[in-house]
Specification:
This protein has a four-stranded mixed sheet with strand order 1-4-3-2, covered by helices on one side. A four-stranded mixed sheet has the order 5-8-7-6. It has two helices and eight strands; from the N terminus they run βαββββαβββ. It is globular and about 45 Å long. With 121 residues, the protein is an alpha/beta fold. The model has no long low-confidence stretch (mean pLDDT 85). Helices cover 18% and strands 31% of the residues.
Length: 121
């Protein structure tokens, strides 16, 4: 089977509307129009990977999955400043060989990252 890009990431969450609002506010995702009551599908306007929010069961250990959502930006410092205006605080900026990144968590405690790593290919 040939390699394929990631088409969607599924996040199991306790409060689907709250999580949808978070990703719409901070990362410009838009919800698909749907009659589905058991999921919310979020699309990025420019295309790419979808976020699918599903209701977590009582057995799900929220924030314990090894998931990190990475958002590519041109300037991490500027992106952090914009997110802070919207109420999202990121941690320190870490610098590597030709890239930098900073981490935060969404309301369900999933890791999210702003990174310039995509610029180094």
């Amino acid at each position: 089977m040939p390699a394929a890009p990631i088409s969607r990431i599924i996040l199991y969450v306790r409060d689907m509307p709250k999580m949808a609002a978070f990703y719409q506010r901070h990362f410009a995702f838009r919800a698909e129009v749907s009659d589905a009551k058991d999921k919310i599908v979020l699309n990025f306007p420019a295309g790419g990977c979808k976020l699918v929010l599903l209701q977590a069961s009582k057995g799900h250990k929220i924030g314990q999955s090894c998931v990190k959502l990475v958002f590519d930006v041109e300037d991490v410092s500027a992106a952090i400043a914009e997110q802070l205006k919207l109420g999202l605080k990121f941690g320190p900026i870490w610098r590597g060989s030709g890239y930098e990144f900073s981490n935060a968590r969404d309301p369900a405690k999933n890791l999210i990252q702003l990174s310039t790593g995509h610029l180094k290919t």
